[in-house]
Amino acid sequence: MMIETRGLCKSFGEQVVLDDIDLNVAEGTILALLGPNGAGKTTTVQILSTLIRADSGEVRIAGHDLAHEPDAVRAAIGVTGQFSAVDNLLTGEENLLLMADLHHLRRSEGRRRTAALLERFDLVDAARKRPSTYSGGMRRRLDLAMTLVGDPRIIFLDEPTTGLDPRSRHSMWQIIRDLVSGGVTILLTTQYLEEADQLADRIAVLDRGKLVAQGTPNELKRRIGGGHMRLQFADMSGLESAIHILGDVLRDNDELTLQIPSDGNVRSIKVLLDRFDDESIVVNDLSIHTPDLDDVFFALTEHSNTQKGSVR
Amino acid sequence: MINISLTLRDSATMLRRDFRHSLRNLTMTVSGLLTPTIMLVLFVFVFGNTIGIGLGAATHSGSYINYVAPAIIIMTVGTGCETTAINLCTDMAEGIITRFRTMAISRASVLTGQVIGSLIRTMMSIIIVLGLALLMGFRPTASLINWIEALSLIALFTFAVSWMGVVFGLVGKTPAGANSLSLIFVLLPFISSAFVRAESMPVGIRWFAEYQPFTPIIDTLRGLLLGTPIGNSAILAIAWCAAIALVGYLLARAIYNRDPVR
């Protein structure tokens, strides 16, 4: 395990921010820490990256004890937070060279890595400009490039795509995938379910400081059971006839719909529709709903006021 | 453990960064120079005659500029402190300091770089202010040794005040707040022997003027540059510098090592 926490707790005054968090991240994998704003994601990253101290609990990163060997931990990690950590008075290139100096690289090696990173992150044209002239996506790329100068084995990415446009988000995802295929271990926080689904090997769902679930995306989806099919009928008599066939199912009289458990199997759907045809029941609309992380998330966090509105 | 040579190397990196900042942030750097220059012009050409007559024989070598120039030189240290506090406070608000904290670099280097940068910047300002004073008629009588002693005293005081500037920069929530805190080193000289002799002040204020750091430091500098009696001012000056530096260093280190507040 490259990242391991046991019983991690943190409070700010009276407010409990993290309550008994256990996490495991294996080498070369991505763990997504998923949760709404205020769930404790950033605090977790701040503790694991040695910025703030935990109240209790054990943390080992790259085999080093966080409390006793913070410098060994710092040497193994790289952090890119949700607020960019670049020097706004230096140019992009100078920022990267500054990192090279602080990693005690030889001058020639520092220049080589800087040039390579500028190339890789598509910042060659902006190299001699200050970050204040950059777009949001460029700043984020420079930020991550600075993190990579020291060749860290473990990278913490705190909401790496928050505030980015879709194109920048996809290019950031590709960068993250490339990093992991190079053997880097990543702990990523996100409030986007899609992002966790796209990138993560494992997902840990954090809600109000508590870990409510942990597993692969598929394991989590399985936890809330199979999907369903939603049928809309032409009139109430059709609806009633269908209930007669189907038995006890979820009905909505206003919408004239029924919700039927289904794993999306085409053959069984066809059999059902054929039976409706035989009985002359008119189906106006049919939609199939396979479970996604949205369902998982809302099922697990049980936020009564943020129920998922509609079916995709 | 991070050894001494790495600490030095990191501090040098931070110093280079600070130097680049000074060049990029020229308005700030120039305005740090402007205040002592205006003071010098004001006190020599505008108030100089009147105050000089009031001071009478106390001005020793005659003209008021000789009395006031060492004080203005010391005041430059105060404005240097402002620049340091504002620079550091601005820096702290940027995410880059957070990044430094998560890197395996000597934590002290971030602050040491600032202090050495501040020392160099302020000494350069002082040389410019000194040059201006000489052009305006300042006539020191110091020997080479006296000059070396005088510059060493200025450097020591700048070093001490720079640590306090770092503290103000760390404590101030905004650059404006950091600036207000460092005003103490700009305003204190006014209630010292900088512009008029402490003996000429009302009793309470006079007591304060005699027992605050600027009076012995300015009196020592005057003595070194103009040959006026120094007495026990030199010891007091060095003691004040050492005390300010120590308190500033310990406070700065403690505040910087604290967990950043959310």
Secondary-structure map:
The complex is a heterodimer of chains A (312) and B (262).
Chain A: E1 3-12, E2 15-25, E3 30-34, H1 41-48, E4 56-61, E5 64-65, H2 70-76, E6 77-80, H3 92-102, H4 107-120, H5 136-148, E7 154-158, H6 166-181, E8 185-190, H7 193-199, E9 202-207, E10 210-215, H8 217-223, E11 228-233, H9 236-246, E12 250-252, E13 257-261, H10 266-278, E14 283-289, H11 293-301
Parallel strand pairs in A: 3-8, 3-9, 6-7, 7-8
Antiparallel strand pairs in A: 1-2, 1-4, 4-5, 9-10, 11-13, 11-14, 12-13
Helix pairs in contact in A: 3-4, 3-5
Chain B: H1 4-24, H2 26-46, H3 48-55, H4 64-93, H5 95-101, H6 107-135, H7 144-171, H8 175-187, H9 203-210, H10 214-226, H11 233-257
Helix pairs in contact in B: 1-6, 2-4, 2-6, 4-6, 4-7, 4-8, 4-10, 6-7, 7-8, 7-10, 7-11, 10-11
Explain the overall architecture.
The complex is a heterodimer of chains A (312) and B (262). With 312 residues, chain A is α/β, with parallel strands linked by helices. Helices cover 37% and strands 26% of the residues of chain A. In chain A, helix 3 runs parallel beside helix 5. In chain A, 38% of the residues are buried. Chain B is built from eleven helices and no strands. The two termini of chain B are 28 Å apart. The chains are: A alpha/beta (312), B mainly alpha (262). At the A-B interface, helix 2 and helix 3 of A face helix 1 and helix 5 of B.
